[in-house]
Amino acid sequence: MIFFKAFILLIMNVLAGFVLVQPVRLFIFFPKRQLFFFGKPVPFTPSYIRRKRDWFFERVNYWVTYYLENAANKKDRSSRLYDWEKRVYDETWDKLAGVMNMRYVPVAVKTKIREILALFVFEFARHFLRGFVPFLVKKYNLTSYIDLVAAKADVDMVLHYFDKYFHRYVTWFMVGLGFIIGMFNFVIYLLLQLF
Known about the structure:
Largest sheet: 2 strands, antiparallel
Radius of gyration: 28 Å
Number of strands: 2
Strand order of the largest sheet: 1-2
Number of helices: 6
Distance between the termini: 16 Å
Shape: flat
Structural class: mainly alpha
């Protein structure tokens, strides 16, 4: 009887691992339509991905156009793009602190070397972020691809790939974790009952 109770504990842990993954999948993909209860809409219906699909593509389009506008306006020091460039400069300046330890070189020369190298990296990042990335976006017409994906994206297709490449592995991982925890509980329970 003690062994049977320990075995039930193991099975419960494995089932808990399996059951913990399922509500996430249900919340993200099901139900497909808005549900009503006595004429009132049920919250969280339709599923999360179906509610947020259009919003997601609108946000992607917004961020691409916002990035392109910031890249075109090089004098704006309040943009996020300028913050990234400034961060590159600051981090490069900090990494080049070892230059100040060089012997027999005047402090002014060491500072100038450090400043020139930091400025070089800053300008490289600036040209990459404000020139090369917008060039690629315009050359490959990224916004039209985003619109095309938005038109073609089907939630059932996403569900298929979610199940195939993500949900299956997470389920097996959680079941395995539940089995390991269940075995630990199985052994501890048996030891406590025997001693």
